[in-house]
Amino acid sequence: MATRQRSSVTFTKPAAYRYMCRQHLLNGMTGTVEVTRRR
Hints:
mainly beta
């Protein structure tokens, strides 16, 4: 993505979703989004 460019994702189920930066993957730029149920 370009500087100041935005993106969004809607998660509909509780889970751990892994993501990675394709451009910086060799530098280890990855992460996880933990989605939980509403209380």
